[in-house]
Amino acid sequence: GSDLTFTTSTQPAPIVQTLAASFVTNTSAQLNANVNANGASTTVYFDYGTTASYGSTTTSGSIGTQNLNLGTAISGLSPSTTYHFRIVAYNSGGTSYGGDTTFTTTATAQLGPIVQTLAASSQTANTAQLNAYLNPNGFSTTAYFQYGTTTGYGSTTPSGNFGTTPQNIGYNITGLTPSTTYHY
Length: 184
Known about the structure:
mainly beta
């Protein structure tokens, strides 16, 4: 047969999006982003600082060829200060920079725990797992979930001691009524 040729396309750089910071305190925050590796082994890190020139970076890490949302905690920040940050990702196709995003640290230390209710998971007709992020803020912390068919809740899970380490927590509840909306 005749000799024919083809040319493979160029490897695209990662696709990135800087997302809003979360868990902001007077001295720390979690920087968040979405990264699409575009099929090539990809390394990521965040630039951050008090201006759009940044000046600091988080430790870089490989995410392989995954497409994912990621978050990296930073600390040692100054209270009542606005910080800029962006995601940076690179692979064999090039380097991509996320848009500049800002957050402002709080004025004073929050003495109690920091909690954020997260989406429920593993729902069936009669069961569900309730989820949350818990930052004990350096103190030994006990936590539990409230749940029910109204915002008055009415039911609680058993209390658990979660120590002083920030972590995601979850509790499986059972005996739920099928086709019913629950608040927690």
